[in-house]
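Batch job 17 of 40 flagged for manual review because the log was empty.
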Amino acid sequence: MVLFSERYGYKSVRDSLQFECMDDELRTALWNFLCKFPIKSTGLSGTSLIGPTINNYPHHVKKFYIDLWGNFWKRPLDEFNNVLHSPNPYDELRQFFFTCEWYEVYDFLEFFAKKFPLEDSESFNKSANHVLESENSAYRFINSEITPISSEAEIETVEEAIINSPDPVQIHLNEALKLLSNKQSPNLRNSIKESISAVESICNMINGDKSTSLGQALNKMERNNIIQLHGALRRSFSSLYGYANDANGIRHALLEEPNLELEDAKFMLVSCSAFINYLLTKADKSNIKLNKKSDETLEKIFHLLKQTLDDNNIDYSKIIEDFGQVEAAEKREKGYEFTFNEHLKALIYSMLSNRRKWADIVDKLPLIEAIFFNFDPDKLEKCDTEALIDKIREIKCGNMSIYKQIDALPHNIRQLKKIEKEFGSLDTFVIHKSLEEIVKLLSDGKSEYKIKQMGDALALEYLKSVGIRGMKPDVHILRICGPERLDIITAKDTQTQLEEFKNFAESVNVSETYLDNLIWIFGAKGYGEICTANPKCDKCELTNYCNYKN
């Protein structure tokens, strides 16, 4: 199975640029470099550090080890004297080198450069830098000291752009990073091309275009007043685009070998990432919504959701049919008008579903209907609420809020009657404004149509049951689609969550209600139970698209 990092072709930014970390290849390359470097000693020039005992090494090497023992490791020197009679401190050094923290390797490299009797310190630093560069280390010798050539700010800039960008932009940035950090054959030319392509991609997404050049996209952005860019900033990036397209640049000479260095490609990656972060912030302030996942990716996720349920013998089609919400939406589209009793039934069931496994309720629906007088509003408005609560608890269908919910039922029925009188019917009310606005009217404490004990999620559950297409942002859907799993819903406010989910549904050509039901089944106890709080990743086909395991 292809892993997430392999599918997208990248490791983390820090790992790729070896910033504040060190992989085994770099550590081994540095050790091999140290072992092969010639030492300054009469008659033993060219001898490496390796030998059977410390006494096989000349005085200068013994002196270095004493310095290492006392001044670098800060150990008592009388212990070192004992070590002289054992195999040799080289074993201790090798053990230290391959088990210490990444920064301790650089500490030792600096110490070695200053304390070991080198013939040519400048040559040592140059050779060490060659190793560091070939293994993509973010550090170099400068004036005999190890110095970072990548800053924390640069790393965070690239990380932020990769994490927050939509799929198409993310793919270009990942490819730029991969090409830049390829140890065997870094492709600096195409790394720069991918960095520029990432900026082009985000500009086209903001403009609503498919594919135009960066210069054209920036001009359109300014001309159509889509995002206000400072003139100097726009010109600077247009110039940067020109650099990538000039006679010695990237796109007009792909078959020629451009005169590029690692720092050129790294500068372009960091600069383009910073500009992408800037544009994302501007787009957000301008209320421009960007689909983070491509349609192709969303289609694959949708297919694998169903495939996983099939593989685990979950008959989701039958379950969705039994829920009745998709059917209700289809009936409404055909002109069906839901009665007052049906609205009341939907409202009561939404309340009972609050913090309660629906699997515990579904088998007792006939009993519940009888308890609630087949949802007769007049009888329920005058009923003994305490007796109603006792009956619900007796069949084990209560929840943490059942007392408040049933106590508020008479008031809520009067509220529904008030709405019916004002709008002619409850059906007219639920469609007279947008879904988001109706939800607010039902759940906002300041609304004259507020239903007690009903928040956004329960309002959406009620509306779905009377044929209004939508998604209930409950714990299962927000967990599965949220940033820590599939990263499809990233917003914290209900309105934006609904918009993001609607985009998902439109991308896979199904209704929000169907997709809502499908994903809910995927995580709910008593149903799919795949993506729960402690997910069964071994049973899931979505691990390549999920942040939880990766």
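Reviewer: the log was empty due to a logging misconfiguration, but the result itself is present. The chain has a mean pLDDT of 84. Unflagging and moving on to job 18.
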